[in-house]
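User: Let's play a game. I give you a shape written as tokens, and you guess the letters that built it. Ready? Here's round one.
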């Protein structure tokens, strides 16, 4: 029988153990412990618990309720239970108002009774979710960003899209498969000790635990599996590893975003085969159009044609137009992103992608709208993603430059 995955939250270390001892080992697996601190939410999201037990000794502080409320906006499929020694009718009513499914005592109860009751509550909750279609796992979508031409903006668009999805509360993994020159980590200023090479070489094999161990969190909520820091390590990754990594990630993420290199090697081909959709990122110059034709033909021969969509990036008025792509490939352009050199350069230099550092810029807002389209097509739900509200300037504060200053 599969065990029920539980995370125990408490600031009180002794209480964590007390609550753990109430869970019968044959039925429950503790996937982690946490306090109610700033890092807790991200930690819990990545543990994918079915049950979150919030244990509190004495008075339940307001901060616990607001934590749960915030947590449930992200981890919608987990059930939260409050475990306390201070149960009252008022508390139960208040807890229900914050989305807590049950309030249970931790003293004067046997592990058998506690475990049985928790299982019953969970079964009821799962039935309720099934009935209302709520909490149903959204099928994972693996989105690849590719072009056979270097420098068209694959990484820029992949990274910004991944962040936008994560900020919308989606569970997102960004996988850097440009194994020789991957620069996702630099774009995000992510200080990762590990890379995909550590994952494939680990004795424990490719498991979801190891994928979590060797990937890093980004402040946006995104998880990132980086490319190795030196190019010569790339050869340790086999195409079968790539297929396995993506397959294992699927049940745990709503989106896996794959940034690829411009080389048509085994890794790229396997990644394309694992994708549901491949965004071909090209520009409006003749070399781009020529390369697009070559790449399209190869992918067609590899039976990937139905997955292909064009994103025209760095668009500026000129001889080649997005319509030329439509004419050549008989395919509507999925999205056109204008040239925005100022934002592109400054965001890379800051290690803060445009959707974060300059959300109102041409680049930032274009990727946000692209993401809205991706979500609408995947879930059938139209979302309107607003950029962060600008902070109010306090008097005397120096004037800040605009997100996307016009060229002089
Ligand atoms: N819309 C845009 N407007 C202006 N510059 C852009 C835009 N998108 C990306 N760039 C810039 O283009 C350059 C190449 O971008 P990026 O590294 O994302 O391309 P790539 O296709 O991933 O390259 P590679 O093939 O080397 O992996 C970067 O300097 C980036 O800042
Ligand atoms: Mg790149």
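Assistant: Ready! My guess for every position:
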């Amino acid at each position: 029988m599969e065990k029920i995955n539980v995370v125990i939250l408490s600031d009180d270390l002794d209480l964590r153990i007390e609550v753990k001892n109430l869970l019968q080992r044959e039925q429950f697996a503790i996937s982690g412990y946490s306090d109610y601190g700033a890092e807790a939410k991200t930690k819990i999201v990545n543990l994918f618990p079915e049950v979150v037990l919030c244990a509190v000794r004495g008075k339940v502080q307001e901060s616990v309720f607001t934590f749960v409320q915030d947590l449930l906006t992200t981890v919608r499929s987990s059930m939260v239970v409050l475990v306390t020694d201070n149960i009252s009718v008022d508390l139960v009513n208040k807890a229900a108002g914050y989305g807590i499914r049950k309030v249970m005592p931790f003293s004067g109860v046997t592990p058998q009774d506690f475990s049985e009751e928790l299982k019953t509550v969970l079964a009821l909750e799962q039935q309720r979710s099934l009935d209302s279609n709520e909490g149903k796992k959204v099928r994972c979508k693996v989105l690849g960003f590719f072009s056979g031409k270097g420098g068209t903006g694959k990484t820029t668009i992949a990274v910004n899209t991944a962040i936008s999805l994560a900020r919308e509360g989606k569970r997102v993994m960004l996988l850097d498969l440009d194994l020789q020159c991957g620069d996702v980590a630099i774009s995000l200023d992510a200080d990762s000790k590990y890379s995909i090479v550590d994952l494939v070489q680990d004795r424990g094999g490719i498991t979801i635990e190891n994928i979590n161990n060797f990937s890093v969190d980004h402040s946006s909520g995104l998880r990132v599996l980086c490319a190795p820091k030196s190019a010569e390590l790339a050869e340790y990754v086999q195409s079968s590893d790539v297929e396995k990594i993506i397959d294992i990630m699927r049940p745990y993420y709503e989106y896996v975003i794959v940034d690829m290199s411009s080389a048509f090697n085994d890794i790229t081909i396997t990644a394309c085969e694992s994708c549901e959709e491949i965004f071909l990122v090209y520009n409006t110059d003749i070399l781009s159009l020529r390369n697009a034709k070559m790449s399209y033909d190869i992918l067609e021969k590899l039976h990937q044609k139905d997955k292909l969509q064009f994103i025209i990036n760095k668009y500026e008025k000129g001889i080649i137009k997005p319509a030329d792509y439509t004419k050549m490939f008989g395919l509507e352009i999925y999205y056109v992103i204008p040239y925005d050199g100022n934002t592109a350069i400054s965001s890379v230099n800051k290690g803060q992608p445009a959707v974060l550092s300059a959300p109102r810029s041409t680049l930032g807002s274009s990727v946000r709208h692209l993401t809205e389209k991706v979500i609408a097509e995947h879930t059938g739900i139209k979302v309107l993603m607003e950029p962060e509200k600008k902070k109010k300037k306090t008097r005397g504060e120096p004037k800040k430059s605009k997100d996307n200053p016009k060229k002089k």
